[in-house]
Design goal:
It is a single-pass type I membrane protein. Keywords: Disulfide bond, Glycoprotein, Kinase, Membrane, Receptor, Signal, Transferase, Transmembrane, Transmembrane helix. It is found in: Membrane. Its main location: membrane. This protein is mainly beta. It has a domain of 71 residues. The N terminus is likely disordered.
Length: 131
Amino acid sequence: MALFYSRISPSKTPRFAPPWSASCWRTNAAIESPSGLDRFDSISSGSGFSCGVLKGSDRVRCWGVGSIARKMESEFRNMFMVSLVDGESHVCGLNSSGYLVCRGSNDFGQIDVPKGGALEFSGLALGVEHT
């Protein structure tokens, strides 16, 4: 699956980023952006951060507001993920074994994963205080 994300050049003329890459823009210069070398299989965004599954390694890379992005990425440090979906302050996805994994804020029990087997979930949707 090839993902193309549009990127705005200084002349304001839209153009396409290379396949599997991501470009971000925002008025706040304090927001971190992904490396131009990163290639993604999927990307999702939460409140002040985005995370993606790196193409070829299935590792998670997050960017955005530094402290939030670093926290989310560190919580997936030793995992291989197939998919990710970001909520406002939490992230869930399927790991390489097919199990549901959720990390981040759990103020409302939104990362308390129901007990179940591998490949039990085929799609996810996350909100502010729920999964």
